[in-house]
Amino acid sequence: MHEMWCGPDASGQPVWHLLTADRTGTLCGVGKQEDSRRREPTDKHCFPCMATLQAVMQPTGAAAGEES
Question: What is the rounded average pLDDT for all residues in the chain?
Answer without folding.
Answer: 81
